[in-house]
Every structure is written in structure tokens, then in C-alpha cells.
Amino acid sequence: MTLARHLSLALPLLAVLAAGRVERSRDARAAALLAFVAAGIGVAALDGLARPAGWWNFAPVAGTFRGLPVDLWIGWSALWGPLPVLLRRHVPPPLALGLLLWLDAVTMPALSPLVRLGPHWPVGELVGLLGVAAPAQLLGRCSADRRHLALRTLLQLGLFAALLLWFLPTVAFEFGDGSWDRLTGLPASRLLVLAQLALLAATPALAAVRELAVRGGGTPYPWDPPPRLVTTGPYAYLANPMQVSAVALVLLTAAATRSLALLGVAGAAVAFGAGVARPHEGDDLARRHGGPWRDYRRRVRDWWPRRRPYAVGPPAVLWLDDGCGPCAATRRFLERRDPVHLMILPAAAHQWRAEYAGGDGHTDRGVAAVARALDHLHLGWALLGWTLRLPGVTWFAQLVTDAMIAAPHPANPRGERCPTPSSASSTAPSRRSGSTASPGSRPAPSPPPPG
Question: Low complexity composition bias: which ranges (predicted)?
């Protein structure tokens, strides 16, 4: 068994090193590391599923994680993740999965008595290839070639969520105190409150990930960053919203499971952010963005948010239809709160009833446009705006708005009246008021073409 364990670790790592000499791209090697992490977490989760399902288990040996020999774990992860990514120019995904299936079919029976296979172990093998190896390789391939931004952002988000919400707590419980039983044993009412608090804590991170993809054109992974400097959304209030959300979620999990070890994990995360991530990020962003980045970092802190947003460049514009009662009420609501770096203009005949255009050209319509405008008020309203822009939430809020008011459409293109006119427009033509902007802001940019 000792020889089998040594070979199970050495041969995959040697194969990865050899493939790394063939593929010298920095992006590909960084993507291979990401695929390795994804495969490693996936293999650990698969092993936790395989034992109760009776697919396989391992002989009791030293050097294991929850019964999984660490050397087999590392070798398995290297084969399923980074190796196919580094060889992606020569081995297409279907062939890579087929070769992995053949390799496991040959080697797993040969590893007996270290590996004890159940009668239905091929089912577990297929589950692992489709649920672990395929997503890890897809993430690595897309990241290496910088393709399919939305897909690789979604895969990264899933990976980081699994790392933060399952893997790190599981490691802490394995070598420290606490357990998942303490969480699952809570009453349903407390679990509901806990889920709501977790969503509140995660919202800045989720909004920040979306901001990096939509406004910056990149991802949170340090070796797959956005080419444009992002200072909007949560980044207008906080320099590292994802780290703050991560620490808050770990602390929430520690409280729910009564784990001191997880408190240590939260402290280590803060130390890592301050001692490792911040210097690396600062040097990289200063090199790529220069003065704008240094000005941003002077005004926006790491762990303590601003009350009002940081803003620079051309102001954003929100067009609202003065002839629509809810739109007019929304305009009055925003104007009373003195939005920062936001101009509010009446919608012209060829523009949509509610449309937002950022200074960088990004546009939103309907509920999403109003949610964007909330970013320009203060931290409390911005948090509501980030929540409204979460996947699924925007769709539902827009659905309700469409049912109660009217679906998004050009503002009175042929003189039609709004289904819910404002009080002023019901007796007189709508008042086209001036704009609201921060002091020193530029004149309103030309309206974008109709959508």
C-alpha cells in the first residue's frame, strides 16, 4: 500500500510538471492552479458522498483527511484539474474526460486493498467526472484562454462559495472544534434568520463579483483580473468588499456552530488580506492603473466603508419619465437625498421610461436603473440597490413592477399617456425639470441610442 500511495502522488505530479514545460503561458498556469483547487474541493466532497452511497472507501491508514488518503487526494486532483488544462491545445475536453474514465477504470481496482470498491462504484466514477472533473476543466480552460466571461465568473463564484462555506469550516471542524450537526440541529425559525443574515453578509461580495464582470470585464481571481479599474458599486464604498463579506460569513458560521477554530480562520483571513493580498493587489493595480488607483486608495478604506460613495469621471445619468407617477415620485425621492455624481433628467420621446447610463457607458433599464441610482445616495440605500441587482431578484422586482405599473417601454413615443400618470400630468403637461448633480459635475452627456 505504501508503494501505491507514493506512485499515486508522484506520477500525476510529474505529469503536471511535464505539461507545464510544454505550456509556458502564465495565464494557463494560473488557470491550472485554479482548476487544481476546484478539483481538490470537488474530490473531497465526492469522497464524502461515496462512502455513505457505498461506491468506495479506503483502508484505515495514516495521513488522511476524513478517511481520504492525502496523497491519493492530491494525485486525483492533479489528474482531474490542472493536467487537462495544461494540455488543452492537444487534448479536447471529451477526449480528456474519456481518458480519465479509462485511467480510473484501470487503476482503481489495481489499488486494492487500499481502495475498497463497492458494487456500484462506476456510478460514483461518472458522478465525479461530470460533477467534479468537467467543471474544473471548464473553469481552467475558459480562464486560460480568457473566454466566456459570464461562465467563468459563475464557476469561480461557485468555487469560492464551496471553499468558504463548506471546505474551510469542514477543515476547522476536523482539526478543531464545532460540527455541522450544531447547525443542522437548529430550529427552522433560527435557520431562516441565519439564512437571511448570510444573504445580507454575502450581498456586497455578490454585487462586487458582478461589478468586476459587467463594468470591469474580468473576474475576482487575481490572475484573471478586469482590464478596467472598477470603482463603482460596492467598490465606491469599500476597497475589498469580497474579503469583508467572506470574514462576515465565516464569523456567522462560527457563531452558528460555536466553533473557536472558525474564529481562528476568520482572523487568518484578515491577516492574509492585510499582509498578502493587499500588497500584491496594490502593486499590480498601481502598475496597471497608476494615478487613478492611487487616488482611489487614498479615499476608500479596506475594512471600514464610506458613508457616501467615491466618484470620479463623468457623472452618471438617470432618465425618468416625468409623465409617469411612480417615475416622478422616484425622482423626488432621489433628489431629496442629494445623489452623488448623478444627473436626473426627463426622458425624451425616444428614450425609455427609466434608464441609467454610467460615466463608463454601462446602461440599465427599469428596476435595475433605479437600483443603480441608489448606489449614488449612501451606504444603506446602496445595499438595497445591490440586493435588487442580485440574479433573480431583479427579474422578480421587474415582474412585480410591470404588473403594478407598466412594462419598460419608450416614454410616450406617440403621445400615449402613462397608465399611472403623475398628479401634475393629470391636469397639465408634465414639468421637465432640470438635473441633479454633484458640485462641479460636467454637463449631461448625449442620451444613448434607443434600446
Answer: 419-441
In DSSP terms, 342 is beta-bridged to 316
Q: Is the pLDDT of residue 413 over 60?
A: no
Residues 6+ apart with CB under 8 A from 91: 84, 99
| Domain limit, last residue, from 282, 306, 330 | 306
Closest CA to 315 of 382, 367, 360: 360
- Please check whether residues 328 and 271 belong to one and the same domain: no
Whether the Cβ atoms of residue 328 and residue 422 lie closer than 8 Å to each other: yes
Helical spans, DSSP H, in 241-277: 241-257, 260-272
Cis-peptide into 227, omega within 30 deg: no
Name the burial class of residue 2, with classes exposed (0-12), middle (13-18) and buried (19+) by CB atoms within 10 angstroms of its CB: exposed
Residue 193's CB is within 10 A of a number of other CB atoms, namely: 12
Q: What's the pTM?
A: 0.85
Structural contact between residues 297 and 224, judged by C-beta atoms closer than 8 angstroms: no
Domain tally, the chain: 3
Residue 50 and residue 7 in one domain: yes
Enter the DSSP assignment of 300. Answer: S
| Eight-class DSSP state of 302 | S
| Residue 202 and residue 139 in one domain | no
Question: Using an 8 Å Cβ cutoff, are 262 and 237 in contact?
Answer: no
- For 316, phi then psi, to 5°, come to -75, 160
Mean pLDDT along residues 284-302: 92
- CATH number for 206: 1.20.120
Is 165 in the same domain as 126? no
Instruction: Please list the helix, strand and coil fractions of the chain in percent, rounded to the nearest 5, in that order.
Output: 60, 5, 35
Q: What is the pLDDT of residues 109-146, one digit of tens each?
A: 999 899 999 999 999 999 999 999 999 999 999 999 99
Contact indicator for 34, 143 with CB cutoff of 8 Å: yes
Beta strands 316-320 and 342-346: pairing type?
parallel
In this prediction, residue 272 carries a pLDDT of 86
In DSSP terms, 316 is beta-bridged to 342
Residue type, 223: W
Task: List the domain range (segments joined by +) for residue 210.
Answer: 155-306
Quick count: other Cβ atoms within 10 Å of Cβ 88?
21
